[in-house]
Amino acid sequence: MSYRRSTVRLIIERDGQVHRHGKTTTCTVVDMSEEGVRVKAQSPVTVGEELQLDCWLVKDRWVRCTVQVRYVSSPYFGARITHISPEQQSHLREYIDDLITTNFPTR
Questions:
Q1: In terms of CB atoms within 10 Å, which of 51, 66, 90, 104 comes out highest?
Q2: Do the Cβ atoms of 3 and 10 come closer than 8 Å?
Q3: Contacts (Cβ under 8 Å, ≥6 apart) of 90
Q4: Domain 10-101 belongs to what architecture?
Q5: Which residues contact residue 26 at a Cβ distance below 8 angstroms, ignoring those fewer than 6 apart?
Q6: Is 67 in contact with 78 (CB distance < 8 Å)?
């Protein structure tokens, strides 16, 4: 069995918002990598749909990106990040690096 992800996906359990069709709904981002997310949301989505996602990483830092839904298993969906600004990508990378450093220290 091969591992299909090229980056590590970390469990984060962070509050977020999904923006679609001019409406905003709350969600929980349950895990994240630099390339994708798994989200728990009460609003139904469809495979292939593009959404804007906001996720609060830490108190004063959040990330905003466009994601494309890859699978749905209600109330969860998995999505690939299709657009993120360089600044937001930097925030995300720093957050993930901090999580890895904190949770998996090296000797």
A1: 51
A2: no
A3: none
A4: Beta Barrel (2.40)
A5: 15, 16, 17, 18, 41
A6: no
Rounded Cα distance between 104 and 31, Å, is 17
Backbone φ and ψ of 48, nearest 5°: 95, -15
Given the structure tokens 């390339």, which residue do they identify?
35
CA 5 to CA 83: how far, in whole Å? Answer: 18
Residue 103: what pLDDT?
73
- The tens-digit pLDDT sequence of the chain (107 residues) is 444 545 677 888 999 999 998 999 999 999 999 999 999 998 889 999 999 999 999 888 899 999 999 999 999 999 999 999 999 999 999 998 888 888 766 66
Query: Can you name the residues that pair with 81 across neighbouring β-strands?
Result: 67
In the block, tokens 């996720």 appear at 55
Report the predicted TM-score, pTM, of the whole model to 2 decimal places. Answer: 0.86
